[in-house]
Amino acid sequence: MKNLVVVLALVVGSLFSVSAQDKMMKAEKVISLEQTKGEFTQKEITVDEGTYTFEVSNNAVGHDVGFVLVKKGDDISKPENHIQTAYVTKAVATGAKQTSKPTKLTKGEYVYFCPLNPTSTDNILTVK
């Protein structure tokens, strides 16, 4: 009976370990972006297809900033063209960082900008 309890404990422990490893393997990758007054410090980024979380930092802009991602060629002024999962979940205060929801990126080019800062719309994210 004692051996059965030990075996069950090992089996249950192994299941939890495998589950934790699976979650780590499926974790999203992070694309870190920094905004200064009127611009992103990263103008061009290239990544592989996959699911990403955007982390946006506000480096002394002096007011809250945000993040907008749009498929290149789409009208950026129309919110329905914005990839809404890429929005930061909260406006980014000066000296702070915020993240987006997980966002699946497929092959192609995207533009990113901040209408609150405001930044150029010439920033390109290429997904290969």
Task: Give a verbal description of the structure.
By secondary structure, the chain is of the alpha+beta class. It has one domain (31-127): Cupredoxins -  blue copper proteins (Immunoglobulin-like, Sandwich), CATH 2.60.40.420. It contains 1 helix and 9 strands; from the N terminus they run H-E-E-E-E-E-E-E-E-E. The chain has one helix at residues 2-26, and strands spanning 29-36, 39-40, 44-47, 50-58, 68-71, 97-99, 103-105, 108-113, 123-127. Strands 1, 2, 4, 6 and 7 form a 5-stranded mixed beta sheet that branches. Strand 1 (29-36) and strand 2 (39-40) form a beta hairpin. The model is unreliable at 3-25 (pLDDT under 50).
